Amino acid sequence: MTEITAPKSPITTAEFADEIREQLKYTQGVTVEQATPADVYVAASTAVRRHLMDSWMKTQQDMVNGNTKAVGYLSAEFLMGKQLRNALLNAGLTEQFDEAVEQLGFDYQDVVDAEYEPALGNGGLGRLAACFIDSLASLGVPAFGYGIQYQYGIFKQSFNEQGQQIENPEYWLANEEPWGHVDYNRSQRVDFGGYVADEDGKRVWHPATCVRAVPVDYMVPGYASGRVNTLRLWTAKSYDEFDLLTFNRSDYLNAVRPQVDAENISKILYPEDSTPQGKRLRLQQQYFFVSASIHDAIRVFYPGQDKPDLTTFPDKITFQLNDTHPVIGIPELMRVLIDEYGYDWDTAWDITTRTFNYTCHTLLPEALEVWPANLIGELLPRHLEIIYQINDHFLNEIAGKTRDKAKIERMRIVTEGDDPQVRMAYLAVAGGSHVNGVAELHSQLLKDITLKDFSDLYGEKFTNVTNGVTPRRFIKLANPRLSDLITEGLGTDKWLSDLELLKGLEPLAQDDEFVKKFAEVKHANKVSFANYAKRQYGFDMNPDTMFNSMIKRLHEYKRQSLKILALIARYADIKNGNMSADDVMPRTVIFGAKSAPGYYMAKLTIQLINNVARVVNNDPDVKGKLNVFFPWNYNVRLAQHLIPATDLDEQISQAGKEASGTGNMKFALNGALTVGTLDGANVEIRERVGAENFFLFGMTVDEVEELYAKGYGPAAYYEANPRLKQAIDMISNGTFSNGDRNTFAPLVADWLTKDYFMTLADFDSYTAIQSDIEALYRTPLEWHRKALINVANSGYFSSDRSIEDYLERIWHTGPLAD
């Protein structure tokens, strides 16, 4: 692990207070007396950016002039979280900020709260990207994060009176946003549509329309590394924003039509794609940011050169494709090299395949993006030609490796038939140097099942890099009480940059006094979260109960349905008197999740959870014994409050479906115990923290596949388990829908006839493990001893370690020289 020393304080508190005053005067146009907390937030953020500026410019200069290959991380999401606290920590200015703001007469928490969280991601994919670019900077590795600056994010979630998810635009840019620097002088042109013609023996693309990709740069400061990398997000503008003649004819809508069409590209994350228009917009988004990014990288690394030698491009930068969203970059780089720079096919293909690498984040075949060839041909006609050529070359290549014609047909990048489809994951494997999964089990299943044909013939391309999380945000910032206790226990704060040092806490798990201190930290965090939940949501939570959390994207394979069915069964047990007062261990259950707007079953599950919460929380028979809460609009801010307060974490996806997870890592790192299946990174967490410190239940991958093979009949489980039957019957008879039997009928019907992710099959195992959980929780010292062991053995799950694995196994580069 690269050693990093703690950041040194660059200025005094008094000097920082003066800088804030100066920014209030010259950027906000107010005095300290006139300023609001929002003014102080912008002023302080601007001051911090100025402190980072020299390091940012030096990093860029050293990157271009040095011999270290840079990393270009191409991702549709970057779920950054709030920036001010993270920048202060990495710049060594936290104490000065807190004290300076107080000197100016403001509460520093009010100033921090004035920042609106950037709505640039949805879930684990985006948060992973944010952790990775933080670690790249902290390790001193030059990098660009490339994506889109979405004006409205994915959506701002709320719930109506019926408990249904409502999607509202989340205009996070409504107020001043001091972190992003718009640079119109470095914009890129991105073309769409048109036709391709033969001209002078060459294929020439004549686009029909074009948009202007304007970069918005965010500094990504490393922790005490002296390096500041760049997150470059593209926003779409029109070159022809306004037609005055049309406007003067009172045709106001068409006068601004080019502007509207262009700006739609960067309006929201993941536009609903159940319509042809939605699919078209998604493809536009993906091509928009990768095309702009590739041209930008050429501009950055070959400044002022009209015809640079791009055979050196793979030595300048390596592009990591974060899932299939950026894979259109492979034919785009081929097009650039052949059409714009005149390289022959073989040279262009050699450059391209040495430039790209692909991270696959799924095991679900339906989640591997497939685009209709006719849609690509309509939007990107030249690229479709190149994709067909790649497909032909690739088929010829694999024909030399195998005589299995069925395998060759299965590996086609472009399917045959009347409606050919382009399989983006296959294009990524063919066009990149490496393919990695994101947990040991996931990577093995990729090779054995999802991409088996490719692994059989190109096994050398496949590797694993288990995900990780940054300890700076998810312990130091999110959990300062635990952070201070860890430093006390280890006698050093170097663990922030070498998380494996947490192993030194393991002997302290046998020290009852230290374990009691650890328990006090957890309880204080629970009190803080209860207060936060009251302020933000109006929830009344009892911190003396077990806090049991399940926070993740709402998807059927993640099995929030299993948790809610078990909750209903428990509610029925209490309600029916099947549990004595002494048997009931009070729980506070907290969900956090968004569903894709067009995902009907997931949205219905959200409605069910909310309605169960309404019934349970208002039933005097279970008061003080069971509460269920669903805070809306789950985001990084909420995670940073909830994760440190959680006692029991739920990681209950069907075995073989979750790629990795990073929430499981964050919870273990913050002293929660996990109940989970052998899925994703759960496997590695359990191996490292010890099987006795992890609550395992459910079928294994092999058992799941065996049950699929012999035929799964969910109704048999319903009939065989009285508690499960009663829980489903309560949903069916309208207990949680004001007597309406139709509201949740689709969920019930799916469970009893399909239940593809085997919720019912794992119900008995899941509910059985609860007795072990509750028995341990009734012995607080032993519970917290095991929780502390989880913390001590979570060092492997640092994103710094993940990045070092990428550097060694895939990127073959390293930090800039000092």
From TrEMBL:
Catalysed reaction(s) here are: [(1->4)-alpha-D-glucosyl](n) + phosphate = [(1->4)-alpha-D-glucosyl](n-1) + alpha-D-glucose 1-phosphate
Superkingdom classification of source: Bacteria
Cellular component per GO? cytoplasm
Q: Which InterPro entries match?
A: Glycg_phsphrylas (IPR011833), Glyco_trans_35 (IPR000811), Pyridoxal_P_attach_site (IPR035090)
Name of this protein:
Alpha-1,4 glucan phosphorylase
GO MF terms on file? glycogen phosphorylase activity; pyridoxal phosphate binding
Query: Which GO terms fall under biological process for this protein?
Result: glycogen catabolic process
What Pfam families does the record tag this protein with?
Phosphorylase
Q: Cofactor(s) for this protein?
A: pyridoxal 5'-phosphate
- List the Gene3D superfamilies hit by this protein, alphabetically: Glycogen Phosphorylase B (3.40.50.2000)
- Write out the entry's keywords from A to Z: Carbohydrate metabolism, Glycosyltransferase, Pyridoxal phosphate, Transferase
User: What does the sequence similarity comment in the record state about its family?
Assistant: Belongs to the glycogen phosphorylase family.
UniProt function note:
Allosteric enzyme that catalyzes the rate-limiting step in glycogen catabolism, the phosphorolytic cleavage of glycogen to produce glucose-1-phosphate, and plays a central role in maintaining cellular and organismal glucose homeostasis.
Mark the residues carrying the PTM N6-(pyridoxal phosphate)lysine.
Answer: 666
Going by the record, the broad EC class of this enzyme is transferase
- Which E.C. number(s) belong to this protein? 2.4.1.1
Organism, scientific name: Bifidobacterium pullorum subsp. gallinarum
